[in-house]
Every structure is written in C-alpha cells, then in structure tokens.
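Can't paste images in this forum, so I'm doing it all in text. The chain is below; anyone willing to post the predicted structure tokens underneath?
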Amino acid sequence: MPNENEAVEQKKSPIHWATIGIFFSTLAVVITIFAASYGYAQLTTITITLTKVISSLENELTNTQRNFVSLQQMVNNFATTMQQSAALAHQQEKLLMDWQAAQEGNLDKWYMAEAQHLVRLANDYTPLTNAQTITIALLQRADEALRNVKDSRVVVIQKSLATDIYNLQHSPQVNINTLYVQLANLDKQLNQLPLPIMQLKQESKLSSDMTKTDSSWWQKGLERSWQMLRQIVIVHYNGSHTLPLIIPDEKIFLYQNLHAQMENAIWGLLHNNMVVYQLSLQQAMDWIQQYFVQDAELTKNILQNLQALQKITIQPLTINLTPTLQLFDDYFGIQKTE
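Text version of the structure:
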C-alpha cells in the first residue's frame, strides 16, 4: 500500500507543475497583450497629438505667409505713395514758380490752364446720361476764361469751342426719367390686354331620329348617348387670319414673357444700350400683335406707345472734344519752346 501511494504522488506531481506552467504562460500572454494594447493606445494618442500639432503649425505658417504678403503689399503701396508724393511735390514746385511769374502780371497761362481743365471735365461728362446741360455750362465757363487771354493765338481755340457749344445746344435731348416712367406705366397695363375667346357653336338641331315618335326607347337612348359623345371632343377650324387660342394654363406665361421684355427694354434704357432697347420693344409688339385682340382700344394704345418709344434714340452724346483739347496741347507746346 505505501508503494502504491508513492506511485500515485509521483504521477500527480508532473501534472501539477504542468498546470502551473500553463497558468504562468497564459498570464504572460495576457500581460503581453495588455501591454501591446496599452502601447498601441499610447501610440495612437501620440499620433493624433502630433497630427494636431502639425495641422496647427501649417495653419500658423499659412497665416504667417499671408501676413508677409500683406506686409509686402503695404511696403509696395508705401513706395508707390512716396513716388506719387514726390511727383506731387514737383508739380507744386512748378506751380509756385508759375505763380511767381503770374505775380509779375502775366495771367494768360493761368486762364489757359483753367479753360483746359474745364474742357477736360466737359469731355468726361459727355458719355454720361442727362449730362448735356452741365457739359454746356462747363464749355461756356471755359470760353469766358479764354476771353481774358491777350494772346491772339487763342482765337483758333475759341472758334473750336464755340462750334462744340453750338453742336451740343442743337443736339436732341433724351429725358431718361420720363422714358422710364412711360415704360413702367405700359408694363403695368400689360395684364389688362384682352385675349381672344373662342365661342363654341351649340348644336341647333338634334338628329332627325330624335324627333321621330315611332322610335323605340332604346333607340332614343342610344342616339342621345351618341350626341353626348360627339360633344366631348370638338374640333374647330381656324383660318390663317385668326388669332391663336391661348389656354388658361399658358396665359400667365404669356404675360410673364411680356413683362420680361419690358424689363429688358428698361435695362437697355438705363444702360444706354440701343440694341437691347429696340429689340425688346419689337419683341413685345410682335407678341401683342400675335396673341391679343387687335380691335381692343387698350391694345391699340399700347402698340402706339411702344412704337413711339422705339423710335426714340437713347444713345449718349456723340460730341467729341478731343480736337479742342489737342489745340490746348499745341498751344502749351509752343509756349514751352519759346
């Protein structure tokens, strides 16, 4: 018996150590996995932090570059301002020298410079809308300044200036504000234009079979059903001179298109675009003549007003003051050579 117990204990001992080895091995594996997971988590956190830091540095670098570009532009602007200031100082010095010469009694150069400046202002105003009055006033002031010049060579400039004033005074004037109000009023009346209405002819007589008293009840019912089916779809023939019939769903689109053409005409008026102005009015007139009742009084009035507006020329002034300005330049050029 003792020998048997010792044998059993010897058998259990290796199994016990094997279990302990497996336990420690498993524990080591778990610790390794935990350590690897912890290390991966820390590495991920570090990576995210580095990414944020790099992104922040890139943003700061971009802002720094922008600030540098802005600073460089400011430096360039400052240099340009300095150059302009130097040129202005040179001009002021020249003006002071001219003023000293004028104090000695010779004011012709000053009157000529004033007249030239006024003509340049008038030349800048000529392309503008409703600027005919102020352009004439500027040229008249320039003519008054030239009358104070004692030099006989100014007569050529005075003649050219008088010709420009005459051409401006006798050129047609266009009141943009009045035309705008007229177009706006016509645009409001477009929705009242009458559309043609197709009158459907009613059948005056029923079939002769319906009037027969000897027809049976089922024949009368069949004939009445046939007459009702014929009234469901009615086809009418319109001649070549008949206005097209607009269905109710298309009516609103027709009026909207007319309003769009009037708005295009107003745009052309405000921007001095003669082509857009005339083409838009012509398109509106074509649609009115094509789709609306021509005998209506409102239609006739709108068409007459549109035709009258289309004939008006809205182009800006075409007076060219360049030859007169060239005479001033020639005069000052001769003075420099003397």
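The radius of gyration is 48 Å. Residues 126 and 319 are 7 Å apart (CA to CA).
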